[in-house]
Structures are given as C-alpha cells and as structure tokens.
UniProtKB/TrEMBL annotation:
One of its GO terms (biological process) is glutathione metabolic process. This is glutathione transferase. It comes from the Eukaryota. Residues 85-205 form the GST C-terminal domain. GO terms for molecular function: glutathione transferase activity. Its EC number is 2.5.1.18. Keywords: Transferase.
Length: 205
C-alpha cells in the first residue's frame, strides 16, 4: 500500500471530508496541517501543490488534487462508494452532487463567520445560509433511507460528506442546526460513529 499524505489547513473546511473518510475507513495517512502563515511560502511549490491550491493528496510519488476527486478516491479505497452495485453507486453520486451544491452555496457564509472574507455575519446568515438550506436540504434529505443512510446497503462516503457539512454548520450556526430536527439527527448519527466521534473529540476547538 502506498503512503498517503494529505495537505490542508487546520480548519474543518474543504479538506475535512477526506480526513473523515481516511479515519472511518481505518486507512493510515499523514495529516499535514498547513498554517495560514505558512501557506503563501508553500503554494508556489509545484512538486507539493501542482495547482497551487489545497487540499492535495500525495499517493506515494503521485498527486491527487481537488477536494471532490480526493473524496471519491478515498471512498474507493475504503469501499464506501458501493461501486459493487453500479445503480446504487450512481444514486449515491446523485446525492453527492446535491450535497456539493449545498456546500458550495453555504460556503461563503462559513468563511464569513471564520473571518476569511469580510462581511456581516448576521446578514450572511439571512442572505446566504438560510436560502441555501431551504433550497437544497429538502432534496438531499428525501434520499435518506429507512436505515438512516443514503443507501440501503449502509453508510457511504456521501453520508460522511453530508455529515461533515452539517458538522461545519454546527460549529458556525449551532442554534440553527438544532432547530432543524432531521438535519440535526443526521449529524448526530454520523458523529456517533465510533471512529468519527473519537476524531471529532480530539479536534482543536
């Protein structure tokens, strides 16, 4: 097995799903957490960062870039993509894209709260997060099966992707997430998975 090394900031943002997938899958990896101060000095190193962006995953001497490509790659390694059933795999990919659309729409609110871009947090909440939630979440959650996951076969990378997105919202808008019972229960279900629970408990607050 090649050595896996993940490079991303020490924030639960675009690189965090990959961490969760490695952890849940029990796949050893080196978690390189790059500081905001270090990044300007490192981003020009094309050997480490082919496109000058993170996250990037080093697989032995090879590189895999772009967060969603990395997520799907690790899902295959961990056998969480249900690829043995092509139709189930396609349905999960469909939900993945629904979650991705929600993530992309909500992300500006999240980075406003974290202070990465200027803006009024309350205004961003009303104008970005609430409309994004109302637009995307009903379509996402209608795909939850009776077992509580997006596939009758059990937990998948898509459950971890959505769970991590909700976890991110629990950090920046906890009261709002608690006011949405189905979303809050899904977040609780994912973060109750033993390996995820342990990983989150060790996270820097």
């Amino acid at each position: 097995m090649p050595e896996y090394e993940l490079y991303y900031f020490d924030f639960p943002l675009r690189g965090e799903v990959a961490r969760w997938l490695f952890v849940y899958g029990g796949i050893p990896f080196k978690d390189h957490r790059v500081s905001v101060e270090e990044w300007p000095k490192l981003k020009g190193n094309k050997k480490l960062f082919p496109y000058g962006v993170m996250p990037v995953l080093h697989v032995g001497n090879d590189r895999v870039a772009e967060s969603h490509v990395i997520n799907r790659f690790i899902a295959r390694l961990a056998k969480l993509d249900h690829a043995e059933d092509p139709l189930d795999h396609a349905r999960l990919d469909e939900v993945y894209e629904l979650v991705r659309a929600f993530y992309d729409d909500a992300f500006k609110y999240v980075i406003t709260v974290f202070g990465f871009i200027p803006g009024d947090k309350n205004k961003a909440f009303e104008e970005i997060l609430v409309p994004a939630f109302e637009k995307h979440v009903p379509n996402i959650e209608r795909n939850i099966k009776g077992n509580g996951w997006f596939s009758e076969r059990g937990i998948s990378h898509v459950d971890l992707f959505y769970g991590q997105l909700l976890d991110m919202l629990n950090i920046v808008a906890q009261d709002f997430l608690k006011s949405e019972p189905e979303s809050y229960k899904f977040w609780q279900r994912v973060t109750a998975e033993p390996r995820i629970k342990e990983f989150v408990a060790k996270r820097k607050q």
